[in-house]
Amino acid sequence: MRVLVEKIYQIYAGAAPSRFRSFWHACLRSRFLARLIFGMSRFPVDTGDSCYFDLTTVLLRRELKKLIRRWDNPRMLEIGVGSFAILSGCLSKRVSTTIDGVDNREERVECAKKFISANSYKVNALTSNVFSNVPQKTYDIIFWNLSYYEDPGVLDVLFDQAPDYLASDGVLAVGYNGKALPRATVLAHLESKKNVSLDKTITYFWNMHEILLIKRTPAT
Fold this sequence. Notes:
By secondary structure, the chain is of the alpha/beta class. It has one domain: Rossmann fold (3-Layer(aba) Sandwich). It contains 8 helices and 7 strands; from the N terminus they run ααααβαβαββαβαββ. It starts with a helix and ends with a strand.
C-alpha cells in the first residue's frame, strides 16, 4: 500500500500535467465537498481557483473532533486560518466558545471574515505572524495545518512560544504532508525545545499526511 501511495504522490507532484492532479485540485475547489465535509453553506465571494481545503485539513477535522471531547468547552486557536476559516468554522459548531484564528496575511484574514459572517461561524479572525498578535490568554487546543514549503525555521517560533499560550493540559496539534515536510524535520526542531514534547504521532497507512499531538513539558 505504501508503494502505491508513493507512486500516486509522484504522479501528483511531478512537473508534467496529470489527470489525477487536475481531478484532485477540482475536489479541493469543490463547493459540494466543502458543504459535505465541513458544513460550509454560503460562499459570499468569488474565490476563482482557490482551494477550500486540502487532505491535511480533512484529517485535522477528524482528529480534532475527537480531541475536543476531553474538555466540556475547549478554548481553541487556529494558526494559519487561511482565506475561508473552513476548519475553525466547522469546529465552532461543536463548541459554545468563539475560536480564535490567525493568519500572517491580512488579505486572507479579510476574506476569512466574510466567510465567517456569511456562515455564522463562532470564529474571531485576526492578522498575526504565528503568536505575534494573539490575545494574552491560554488555550486548550492550538492547531496548525503546517505550510509544506514554509521556512522550517517557523517551527522554532511555534515550539518556543506555544507553551506561553497552552493550558497546563493543553494540546498543540500540527498536521503536515509527510513527504513534502518530513516528520524528521519537524521532530528535529521539536526535540531541541525544553518546554514542549511529543505526546502522540497519528499516521495513516493509506496516505502520507500525519498529525503530531504535542504537550507542554511539566516544570521540574
